[in-house]
Amino acid sequence: MFGFMKTTMVDPSDALPGREAPMPVPERHEVLGTPLAPPYPDGSEIAEFGMGCFWGVERGFWQIGAERGIITTAVGYAGGYTPNPTYEEVCSGRTGHTEAVRVVFDPRRIGYLDLLKAFWEGHDPTQGMRQGNDVGSQYRSMILVHSEAQRAAAESTRQAFQPELTRSGYGEISTEIVPATPFYFAEGYHQQYLSDAKNPNGYCGVGGTGASCPIGVARTDG
Questions:
Q1: 8 assigned to some structural domain
Q2: Could you tell me if residue 10 is inside a domain?
Q3: Structural domain tally of the chain?
Q4: Can you list the residues of the chain whose pLDDT is less than 50?
Q5: Buried/exposed code over 35-52 (b: 16+ C-beta within 10 A; e: otherwise)
Q6: Is residue 139 part of a domain?
Q7: Does residue 55 form part of some domain?
Q8: Is 204 a catalytic residue?
Q9: What is the tens place of the pLDDT at every residue in 5-20?
Q10: Could you say which of 53, 91, 204, 213 is catalytic?
Q11: Residue 140: which CATH number?
Q12: Which of 9, 49, 124, 150 has the most CB atoms in a 10 Å sphere around its CB?
């Protein structure tokens, strides 16, 4: 019964109440040295994705590199109802959130389409309320768009990627494309969890659907 509840979206009226105080997070990115929270540099843009366990997803995006236009990354909770949830609350399935990664980027150096390519190829977007062995609504695939241009790009790439998945034997894409909701930063120990300073022995497994996956899904047990 508990597993069934975790793979069923909670009704807003049944969601946990949460709290007013936001989660305190480190001022600086463990690897890039840039601010995790706003304000971000003028001209930067935000992309947000849910792709399963956020530890490895975040590492994949920061490894694209500052030289290619990645300004900062952070992990958090989005797409749900409970304000400022804790990790344990999100894992209960009673907040409606997915584990999300925020990518702040310089659009003059890297395009949103490049990030979408990393998104689609970096995980299996056909699994519904799970990603591999991780089961629950917090692992569902999601693109949170910050503009109509982002929405159009997300929808067009989803349409283009489905035939490729079908030819490879995958099912229908279950990714949600939704307007950006409040992004609640995860606890400090989750931020850059797989950095050398925190967990140097974290391993990188194959999380994508293609032979060449631009970001590996690295994890231990998140």
A1: no
A2: no
A3: 1
A4: 1-4, 205-206, 209-222
A5: bbeeebeeebbbbbbbbb
A6: yes
A7: yes
A8: no
A9: 689 999 999 999 999 9
A10: 53
A11: 3.30.1060.10
A12: 49
